[in-house]
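Q: Hi! First time doing this. I have a protein sequence and I read that you can turn it into a structure. Is that right? Here it is:
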Amino acid sequence: MHEKKLFLLDAFALIYRGYFALNANAKFNPVNSKGLDTSAILGFTNTLVEVLTKQKPTHIAVVFDTAAPTARHEDFTDYKANREEMPDAIAIAIPYIKQILVAFKIPVIESDGYEADDVIGTLAKKAEEKGFITYMMTPDKDFGQLVSENIFIYKPGRFGADAEILGVKEVCEKFEVSNPKQVIDILGLWGDAVDNIPGIPGVGEKTAKQLIKEFGSIENLLANTDKLKGKLKERVEENKEKAIMSKKLATILTEAPVEFNEQELILEEPDKEKVLELFSELEFRTLARRVLGQEIQLINKSGQMDMFGNVEELPVNQKEIEEFNTIKNTPHNYILVQTLNEVETLCEQLLQQKEICFDTETTSLDAIDAELVGMSFSFKKSEAYYIAFPTDRTEVEKLIQPIKKVLENEKIVKVGQNIKYDVLVFKKLWSRSKRCFV
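A: Yes, that's right. Below is the predicted 3D structure, encoded as structure tokens:
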């Protein structure tokens, strides 16, 4: 029997991912000749076309959130309260993306009062009962709780990397649990800075995993706090209600009021005329050739139709994403640094530079809870260094000392992304130092 292969796309997660990925590329010009920022539209559409081409689903749907409040907002008024306002490019993109989905004949599904996560969870479970293999296409870790023998996370690759498919084995290994449903308990203890789920203050990813490994669930942990010690015991006992609420907020519902009609989800051939019309308006030349096998018609500077889309003549999307540099087509030299001697040697080189860039790899989005996993530095084109920190905090403190001298050197310009977060991480590491760097 032919395998029924369903892809459920988490619309906003993929739109945001595509938008930030394209804007991170300095060679990409997101504005077409009409002044429209197409970054979010192009990012999502490329992702869609890639999955259609490579994965060949038999059934598909794209699930959107709506503006209506959900039960989570009623239970916890601060739920998602700290989210930044939607970028204009994404707000502009949504109507275009929905038009593209109509042209591709792909169903758009949404339900007031329920998040896209809930709708995807509901459809995935119903599809499983109908014998489908379902792939939840999203970069969101929360979906790990839904994974089963027939339900997978399909996490799109970034910057040329392959997509990652997570099943029961992969989710259990990632979260260090015996059952994917325990992901909810870990998220309940750990919290989620993006969704403003509080968790238990002072409990990060590592501690949450250890507690669930030992006690199995939040409920069992709260019933056995006498087995805990010190500050951890105090934190858990003082925040029992917060832990239960956080678990509820982190739970993806699987009973949203949406029907599973497999006939309506069958992947069809796109309406090529509508696709061509939209790609022409948006000036997606490469996608038009890739999807339709033909050139789009653009208006050139003289106001006449240009059948061939002279790339030199219009400031369109740098021939779009296919010409982006990736790790596969760009010469590079990446050097792993692990020992104290290697770190000191690297820092000697860094101290000789006028300008360096750096980034941190940590265990949490919350700087107060985060543990340093690694750091990357670069001061030369196509060359970068990655310092891998051990789990032993004493060893980390030894390695961080020469780095501290570099970061506190006021003569060196430091370049990074979200440096305020990094400053908080470093302040925790060397709390005795009151100096900050810019």
